[in-house]
Amino acid sequence: MSESFSPPVILDATVLSNFASTESVTWLTSVLENLTTVPAVERELQRGPESGYTYLENALKAIETGQIPLEGSAPEQLEQL
After folding, report:
1. Residue 9 carries which DSSP code?
2. Does the first or last residue of the chain, that is N or C, have fewer Cβ atoms within 10 Å of its Cβ?
């Protein structure tokens, strides 16, 4: 019998922003497995608190603590954000 494979759930800035705005990032990480995002999304979220969107700090903290790991590389089109 083979092991089951759980494909990664790649989160973009919109998804992370929406969950952060409702203070639900912790819930998201507790319900879904194999979450990940890419460095371009982290960079986009980092600009938010500087513009007054302080609720994005919840999503950034989840990335910084590894609850939502960063995928080391992404297609070039995504990295241009």
Report:
1. E
2. N
